[in-house]
Each structure stands twice: as C-alpha cells, then as structure tokens.
Design a protein that fits this description.
single chain, alpha/beta, seven-stranded mixed beta sheet, six-stranded parallel beta sheet, 12 helices, globular
Length: 341
C-alpha cells in the first residue's frame, strides 16, 4: 500500500516514524510548497520522490492513502483534491476550519467513495481508551459531567512565535487546540451545545488578544467544560469525569488514570481509599514504563493510524466518523466566533 505525505513539518516526521513501523506500507513521495523542506524530508527518510504540487504527485504515482500534515487552513482544499483523484485521506485535526468547508468535505467523500480519517488522537491514548471503556460498560454509572483542563506555559512555541500560522486561525492558538477537548467531551457526554464562552488576557504577548479561555457546554448526558490556559507553571492535560457510581481523573501527559469510589465517610474507609488511589497511580506509571521498555507503547497517533489503515484494507468505517468530525468543527467554530478573536 503506497502512502504519500503532504506537508513536511514536525508532525509529518512523527507520522513517518509510525508509517515505518507498519508492514506492507511504502511511503513513496512527500509534497510541500517549500521545496527545501520536501527535499530535506525525502533525503532524511530515504523517500524516492518529492514534489511541490499535490495533483502532479498523485497523477504520477498510484497512491492508496494521502497523509495530510499541513496547517488546518489548507485541509479542506487538499482533502477534496485528493478525493477527486481517488485517494483515501488521513488528515490531522480538524478536517476543516468552518462548518461550510466540513460539509463540502463530506459531499466530496460521498461522491468519491473513498475514506477520510480525521486524527482525533487523544481519544486513542491508552489511558483515554480505558476511561471510555469504563463509561461504556457502566462502571461510572450515569455520567453527570466531564471537564477538560489544558495547561500550557507562556513558553508554548506556537503562542510565543509571532509569525506562527496558528495566529491566523479563527480563535488563534485557541482554534488550534480546541478540537482536542471538544472531541473528548463529544465522546463522554454526546451532542454538545455551547452555553458560555469567556476569554481574557493575562500574558504580555502583544499579538495574542487572549490567553485564558473557559467554555461551558451542555451534552445529552451531562454538563461539560473546557479550560485552556497559556499562563500555567507546567504543561498538563487533565480529563475529569463524574458519574453516579464513580469519578475518574485522566492525566494525558503522564498517562495515569485515577478512579475514585467512595462508599462510606468513615475514617477507615477514607484511609483505604487513599491507599487504593496511591496504588492506582503507581500501577499506571509502572504499566506505561513496561510498555515503553518492551516497545509495545502506542501513542494515540499510532493507534489511530493503525486503525485507519485497517479500515481501508478491510473496507470498514474509519475510527472517527465524518459526522463526528463535522460536529467537532461546528462546535469549535461556534466557540471561536464567540471569542471574537
């Protein structure tokens, strides 16, 4: 199965590491408007062909999957063109930057009959997979609310670079990161309605209007919220899930998961629960270390890419449906419009 990469930035390098692990896959070409970047990537990975034009590349080679690793502003046009040239498409989130563009992608996909895989990678991180399994099997009971906290420092490279492409997105740096917490809440509490959006500025970058964001949402199964900060002392991502039978905190950076079940308020029960929580954290860390040591660790990106390849080979639905990806774009668009960035 031949694969071609579009966009030769840092995320493409991460994708290439994954493609090299998969048997039966050949990355035969790369494409970037910056010819030097295309040449550099082709040479570094010993890829035989490089291009600056997508259509030319796909007309000259038989490609099963086009892997789009470009900024979100370009996703819509590149997806549609690849579908018109009869290729399956793998694309970084989001699949478009407006609901209108997302609708056009869906129309193009239906017309082509090919598959489009939108990488919602945080859903496929090992600890998030476990948390979602706990939700599905009823272990947490009825979900009451879910909250995603993303804490970045002021040294965040995207935010700190005045000329970075993220600043031209709707919502700026918020618009780049918002798809992640949004699709997590979609998976936990269902169809989302935005209830409030609050933004403020704390940092000193003159090109950044706001660097703190709090969003409240209502889902079919409960309430939700998103908190984004670019003023934190440390990088962290937490997902808190509250149900009638239990509560879970997922730490996506440190890959730990903590389940809390309090059945009694007696002092002994509190002590036992504290010990159980400590054991869970140690067990999570140990499990991750063992997987890494034995080369069995799979990031969310790798897990998703493997699942998408399987959907192409066996003609199954991609791991994230286009309807889910469309809803993600719609919600992010609504939040960014409310920010008035």
């Amino acid at each position: 199965m031949n694969v071609a990469i579009v966009g030769c930035g840092w995320i493409a390098q991460e994708h290439l590491k994954i493609w090299r692990k998969l048997s039966g896959i050949s990355v035969i070409a790369v494409c970037d408007l910056n010819e030097k970047a295309a040449i550099r990537t082709a040479r570094a990975w010993k890829i035989p062909n490089y291009y600056t034009d997508l259509e030319k590349m796909l007309n000259l080679h038989e490609v099963a999957i086009v892997d789009i690793c470009t900024p979100p502003q370009t996703h819509h046009n590149l997806i549609v063109k690849a579908l018109e040239l009869s290729c399956n498409v793998l694309v970084e989130k989001p699949m478009a930057i407006s609901s209108k563009e997302a609708e056009e992608v869906i129309i193009a996909q239906r017309k082509s009959g090919k598959k489009v895989g939108v990488i919602h990678n945080w859903l496929f991180e090992p600890v998030m997979i476990k948390a979602l399994s706990m939700k599905r099997n009823g272990r947490l009971g009825q979900i009451l609310s879910a909250h995603v906290h993303i804490l970045q420092t002021r040294k965040d490279p995207m935010l700190a670079t005045k000329t970075h492409w993220c600043h031209s997105l709707p919502g700026g740096r918020f618009g780049e990161v918002l798809p992640h917490p949004t699709y997590i809440l979609q998976s936990l509490i269902g169809h989302l309605v935005v209830k409030s959006v609050m933004a403020r500025k704390v940092g000193s970058y003159s090109w950044v209007p706001y660097d703190e964001l709090h969003v409240t949402l209502e889902g079919e199964e409960g309430f939700g919220s998103i908190y984004l900060s670019f003023n934190a002392p440390k990088y962290a991502i937490f997902v808190d899930i509250y149900g009638t039978k239990g509560m879970v905190r997922v730490n996506l950076v440190e890959q730990t998961i903590l389940e809390v079940k309090r059945k009694s308020i007696r002092r002994l029960s509190k002590a036992i629960e504290s010990l159980r929580q400590a054991y869970q954290l140690v067990a999570s860390i140990a499990r991750s270390a063992i997987l890494v040591a034995f080369h069995q660790w799979r990031s969310g990106h790798e897990a998703y890419i493997r699942a998408f390849v399987d959907s192409v080979i066996h003609d199954k639905e991609p791991p994230v449906s286009l309807e889910e990806a469309y809803e993600n774009v719609r919600i992010v668009e609504e939040i960014c419009n409310a920010i008035n960035y």
